[in-house]
Amino acid sequence: MEYNRAEIATPNPKSTINSYRSFGYNLSTAIADIIDNSISAKAKEVSIEYKWLGKDSYISILDNGIGMNLNELVMAMTPGSKDPEEERDLNDLGRFGMGLKAASFSQCKRLTCVTKRKDYEIIKRCWDIDFVNKENEWRLLDSISDESFLDKIEKSGTLVLWEKLDRIVGNAEIDNVSVRNVFYQEMMNVKEHLSLVFHKFIESKKITIYFQNEVIEYYNPFLLNLDPKPEMGITEKFENVEITYFILPHMSEIGKVEYEKSGGSLGWFQQQGFYVYRGDRLLVAGDWLGIEKKRDYSKLARIAINFSNENDFNWQLDIKKSTATPPIEIRRELTRIADIAIKKSAKRYNWRGQKTSSTNLNPSFQPLWTDEVTREGLKKYKINRKHPVISALISENNKLALKAFKLLENNVPIELILSNQNEDPAYHELEKQIEIPSDELIELAVEIYRINVSQGVPENLAKQQIMSSMPFNMFPLINEYLK
Which residues of 406-436 are buried (b: 16+ CB within 10 A; e: fewer)? Predict the structure, then answer.
């Protein structure tokens, strides 16, 4: 095909640089993108500092990586400087050559990059959006607002400085308490985000991230430090993709303090699902990727997926590195593994389901409550008339007992239960299964046993009926008292 050349259509500097501000970063994802560059530059330490000064507030990200020479610095500051299809080093967390610019411009109007190669002089370049808008030209500046920042780099490394934080601070005065508090809260969100996104790097001591001079501790979403430890499945490999499922212990086994700490910022329900990593860097956290829905009984299932940067286009990685879509051939495997993990989670989560479920493997099992679906498609909960305690109450045609049961069934406090569950699931989920029956429960079992025997029920059958009913079936010790 022949191409007839026409005009060179050079993008307008003012409109183009402002369009880079709209890629959808938030402060946390933007700072994480800068740290990706630090890791790619072989940094062992990254230091994040910020200072509230009203409209003059700033954020800086400093690393001790290999730094850049002038050509590399100018290229790093040039939008679209790298070909996305270019083959990358396996440890390179970049892809589009846009991260530094797009992430920075999403949060600030002045981006200054200071860098130093070992045994070379410090160099700097600055993008000032106000200057570009005024002059309407792609003009990098060789300037910095405060030269004391130059002293922060020692042997080698790079410092990224964000000023004119119009998206976070705007034109707020230094004494504006409301904006200051929002600024500080946003920075706390950043700390939490980094502890999760880079947890594998922090755990393996590949990198140390300082936050206002304090080391960021990692948050491993698979909670491997819990006691009892999560169940870990075998790591399966498919086309350079590693998949491992984890089933967390039931919440009641770990206690309230660990329950609150280990749930993460979003809680156990929202944290379930797939965790997608690219070269050990977390991209997607707690999402079933359209394969499953989030449900209470699956909240103990978390599945790690790790792929290399060779698979970027297959996974439709976006510029922010915050979304990834699995290719069809991998999706089938994810569906299969998710099904295994969810079933294991449901089995562990529903231990208390013994109290209500009629799906017990024992065919003679009698729950205290049963459920049924009405013609209108609504769930209704019924007291099981075949339960030995209930049966004993109504055996003498006790009409008042039948009316009481009907009253209870029509007034199950579903709204109150749901309200408490939504307010704080810990109200229910921290309930522990006791191992020894109470004296009152033993006395009740003995009383029912004697009533049944006195009515001509064979002793073995009377025992079986009781020991197959909730909650007596949870305590084999009770059987010794039925004599």
Answer: eeeeeeeeeeeeeeeeeeebbeebbeeeeee
Q: What's the domain count of the chain?
A: 3
197 and 63 in a single domain? The answer is yes
- Cα separation, 447 vs 472, in Å, equals 13
- Residue 428 CA to residue 413 CA, distance in Å, equals 14
Range of the domain at 268: 231-352
In a domain, 40, yes or no: yes
Residues 82 and 202 grouped into a single domain: yes
Cα dist from 110 to 2, 277, 304, 436, whole Å: 44, 31, 38, 67
Statement to judge: residues 163 and 292 lie in one domain? no
Cα–Cα–Cα angle for 174, 143, 83, nearest 5°? 105
Q: How far apart are CA 329 and CA 411, in angstroms?
A: 50
315 domain-assigned = yes
419: in domain: yes
The torsion angle over the Cα atoms of residues 17, 18, 20 and 26, rounded to 10 degrees, is 140
Q: Are residues 279 and 170 in the same domain?
A: no
**Per-residue pLDDT tens listing for the chain (483 residues):** 677 777 777 778 888 877 778 777 899 999 999 999 999 999 999 999 999 999 999 999 999 999 999 999 999 998 765 544 455 454 444 443 467 988 999 999 999 999 999 999 999 999 999 999 999 888 999 999 999 999 999 999 999 999 999 989 999 999 999 999 999 999 999 999 999 999 999 999 999 999 999 999 999 999 888 888 999 999 999 878 899 999 998 877 877 777 777 766 667 788 899 999 988 999 999 899 989 999 888 989 999 999 887 766 677 666 656 677 888 888 999 999 999 999 999 988 876 544 444 444 466 788 888 888 877 777 788 888 888 888 888 876 678 888 888 888 788 887 777 676 666 666 666 666 676 888 888 888 888 888 888 888 888 888 888 888 888 887 888 888 888
Does residue 224 sit within a domain?
Answer: no
Tokens representing residue 312 in the block: 């970027």
3-state secondary structure of 348: helix
**Domain end call among 215, 240, 257:** 215
The domain that contains 174 carries what CATH number?
A: 3.30.565.10
